Amino acid sequence: MIELDSVTKRFSSVVAVDDLTLKLKAGTLFGFLGPNGAGKTTTIKMLVGIMKPTRGRIEVLGMDISKRSQEVKRCLGYIPDRPYLYEKLTGAEFISLTLRLYGIREEVSLKERIDYYLELFSLAEWKDELIENYSHGMKQRLIVTSVLIRDPKIIIVDEPMVGLDPIAVRMVKDIFRDLVKKGKTIFMSTHSVYLAEEICSEIGLIHKGRLVLKDKTEEIMKSFKEMKSLEDIFIKLTLG
Question: Are the C-beta atoms of 224 and 208 separated by less than 8 Å?
């Protein structure tokens, strides 16, 4: 489903991601942990085709992203940590634009899904307001909505809960769990150890650009049975 083979990204003399090899199957909720500056966001930008690796290979759904970038992007949903929106559009106009960019027709069943998610994330009464009038949390909910409406096979998320209130956080966690049960794959970058431990079926830990740990969540806890929590494991591996 997702495969990174010896992926490295350099910025001049700085190695942001160092020889990263990773493979995820369908139906995985993967938590990509690491301290600030570890290489999480750089990895995600390479996964979604915003950056090209210095070397190495990235495949998504069996497609090499360097050769079939547009096809890969049609299968992905990307939720960045900072929402980039056209603020002179209304929420409804932004969703419509997003769907047209992906070549998706707004048929009756899709309109029902749009209405469902707008209502779910408390955006229905704001859909005809300019995005520039939205709060940061509302902008984040709009980005999440625009991705979920498309129903992609893979969702790539960078710090998904930034700016969301507790109710929205609970909804997003429940939605992610439900999507994974339906066979979707979610690659979630976060520095929240608690979030990863709560909802992720697999966890990878990146530190100084290198993957230092990757396994099913329950197996990690068994391997470090002397540790009380995933937080203790995180601190041990990143601080020594």
Answer: no
